Amino acid sequence: MDELSELRDRLVSQQVEARGVRDPLVLAAMRTVPREKFVPDDLKEKAYEDSPLPIGARQTISQPYIVAFMVEALALEGGEKVLEIGAGSGYAAAVLSEIASEVFTIERIGQLAEKAAANLAAAGVANVHVRHADGTEGWAEEAPFDAILVSAGAPDVPKSLMRQLRIGGHMVVPVGSDLRAQELVRITRVDDSEFEREDLADVRFVPLIGKEGFEAEEEWEARSPRVVQSRPAVSVSLPSLIAKHGETFVKHRDADLDALLDRIGGARVVLIGEASHGTSEFYAMRAHITQELIERKRFNIVAVEADWPDAARIDHYVRHRGVPPSEWTAFARFPTWMWRNEETRAFVDWLHNRNATRASDRRAAFYGLDLYSLYTSVRAVIDYLETVDPDLAAVARQRYGCLTPWEADPAAYGRAALRGDYRKCERDVAHMLVELLRKRQEYTPKDGERFLDATQNAQLVANAEQYYRVMYYGSRASWNLRDSHMFDTLQNVLAFHGPQSKAVVWAHNSHIGDAAATEMGRRREHNIGQLCRQHFGGSSYHIGFGTNAGTVAAASFWDGPMEVMKVKPAHAQSYERLFHMTNAPGLLLPLRGKQGEELHDKLARPRLERAIGVIYRPDSELASHYFEAVLPRQFDEYIWIDQTCAIKPFAVAELQGLPDMYPFGL
Ligand code: SAH
User: In this structure, are 346 and 332 located in the same domain?
Assistant: First the structure.
């Protein structure tokens, strides 16, 4: 067997069969088609990797598994006439051509259509016809088709394609009204007018653009000024309505928060968002509000989108606690700037000094809600048990040993465990948690805080183990698991501090705004914001942030270095554009209650909203950073800061001189 067919064999067994594709025709086709002939020259060595790859013109060749999964869903038996929309590289068409007798594939971008035809010829495929056209209208002269595969995400199933499907035939198509994520759907034509629909999976495809698809981005951009002109009543008056109801400020430091504090009233949980993980003003304003909540409303918990053990270092410092949580460095992993910055330090120092003058039970605590610290949490549980129960520590070491080989890459554990190449550690980590919880009576009298710390770490290990396994299936399950973990952690710390406790939560807008009011809801994703709304009702207050332009600290890719990037001015169809048009440098806009019914109604029309995370890719901003939302249902309050700057990360040299117990020390 040559090297390439070995690679293909491995691809099929590890990426395709392991995930449950069983159809022998599909597996054989995947073993035969030379994928390397369909990727650009400079990416040839990645041809057999488990991912989509760029093929030029901002399009991608699909991940091998997804091609196999979709082709299997067509339930071909051999010899059919098949239509594909979105030829791209031609790879999926080549896979289809191994099973079907004739394949017709359409590509809307001329240069890709030519390339696909050339790739197919180079791979020796002779039964595929490539056409350069808008595929949403199908290929009427050749209809009906026994099966139709749509390789791009459609807003709705194109009607023309439904008409061109033979009775009894299947069409597989990603459907969803947002540009980034879709539901993979199988349509079966039952008779002339009846179609059945099944949901198969959540997927991410580039958009299907055309007459019965999305509008092209360029056309969308070009159209927006005309919309403003033709509907001045809406577009011009809405910003002034916002300005009328908003409380404006010039500098965020000088913003008067009295009215906001009144609106927050007796809420038990206040969730404060951010529209990026690297904007100075969001951090500073959030800290300012939090200080007021601690001082004036007796909030005693700050719970943030950071890993539990890292935040425990901060907690130890701000509450002047005796036993240090452990020796590791806090926030040493990517993205370090998210917490290692001057803005966070200013708040942490303030809390440290403020707490110093109070009895230990009146000090405000600092906790982490996130779950990316699998291995530091493992060590924290073992360290704790070493001091209270060395025998159980030995058991823990053995149980957690199951995860040890994967420290460098926990995602690889998830893959191996799923494929069955490696045993699942699920039972081990679950048992450890149960055993620890059983010791509550015995351990808590000695030090309840440390017991909470250990059990939270054990819980984190259990959830993170699951997280890395479900991650493999796609974004929805892992996102939901992570946000449920955050919510449960919040509940635990509130319970620990008793019925009078009150918490401020700091996390990205996408976590703290109600997911049901955004496209996340359609994808059946929930978040901590939605879970808090459901649980606390009016007693949780959600504050979102937004900005028009300026700079932001972010990376271009995961694990990449932090860069200070320019933030593009907000998209014409976004909420941000409306707020920018108020000309206010900053404003607080209350969204709850009846005070602005007209405004509320007008804002309740879905619009785009921007989310910048630790990654920012201005070049593909519309597709990667905008999502659809209904702002007044998402938040109770929106804070607008028109021009913003990147947060100020610590210089490494500065870290070296810090005292040992300072949480940000190296
Ligand atoms: N099947 C391809 C994956 C292509 S990605 C492969 O195996 O490589 C989706 C492709 O659909 C892109 O090349 C995009 O340009 C194309 N596309 C988007 N809208 C289209 C339309 N209306 N008609 C035809 N092709 C379209």
Answer: yes
Q: Say if residue 220's pLDDT is above 70.
A: no
**Statement to judge: residues 512 and 587 lie in one domain:** yes
Q: Is 665 among the domain residues? A: no
pLDDT digits (tens, 9 = 90+) for 338-384: 999 999 999 999 999 999 999 999 999 999 999 999 999 999 999 99
Residues 531, 491: one domain?
Answer: no
The b/e string for 529-551 (b: 16+ C-beta within 10 A; e otherwise) is: bbbbbeeeeeebbbbbbbbbebb
**CB contact at 8 A, 523 and 252:** no
Average pLDDT over residues 218-231: 40
Q: Kindly tell me if the per-residue pLDDT of 236 is higher than 60.
A: no
Question: How do beta strands 637-641 and 540-546 pair?
Answer: parallel
Question: Is residue 506, in this structure, part of any structural domain at all?
Answer: yes
Is residue 146 domain-shared with residue 273, that is, in the same domain? no
Type of residue numbered 120: L
152 Cα: distance to centroid of ligand 1 (angstroms): 6
Query: Ligand 1 center to residue 175 CA distance, Å?
Result: 14
**Is the pTM higher than 0.90?**
no
pLDDT in tens, 167-215: 999 999 999 877 667 888 999 999 999 999 988 888 888 899 999 998 8
* 230 is an active site residue: no
E strands of 142-221, at which residues?
145-150, 165-175, 182-189, 195-203
Do 537 and 635 sit in the same domain of this protein?
yes
Residue ranges making up the domain that contains 199: 3-228
The Cα 320–Cα 315 span in angstroms is: 8
Question: Quick one: what percent of the chain has pLDDT higher than 70?
Answer: 93
Residue at 448 is within a domain: yes
Token output for 421: 């190449």
Q: Write out the two tokens for 298.
A: 């007796």
For residues 255 and 218, membership in a common domain is answered with: no
Active site residue: 5, 62, 89, 540, which one? 62
- 216 plus 94 within the same structural domain: yes
Q: Please enumerate in sequence order all residues whose Cβ is within 8 A of that of 327, keeping only pairs 6 or more positions apart, or say none.
A: none
Assigned token pair, 639: 């804070």
For residue range 62-72, what is the model confidence (pLDDT) as tens digits? Answer: 999 999 999 99
320 and 251 share one domain: yes
SS3 label, residue 223 = helix
SS3 69: helix
From 206, 228, 250, the end of a domain falls on 228
Q: Pairing between strand 59-61 and 195-203?
A: unpaired
Q: What is the mean pLDDT of residues 494-519?
A: 97
Give the CA distances from residue 425 to residues 138, 372, 412, 437, 466, in Å, rounded to whole numbers and listed in that order. 49, 17, 13, 19, 9
What is the distance between the alpha carbons of residues 374 and 366, in angstroms, rounded to a whole number? 20
What is the position in ligand 1's atom list of the atom closest to the CA of 207?
A: 18
pLDDT of residue 218: 56
Q: How many domains does the chain have?
A: 3
For 609-626, letters b (16+ CB in 10 Å) and e give: bbbbbbebeeeebbebbb
CB-based pocket (< 6 A), ligand 1? 59-62, 85-86, 88-89, 91-92, 106-109, 112, 134-136, 151-152, 206, 208-210, 213
- Which of 444, 461, 495 marks a domain boundary? 495
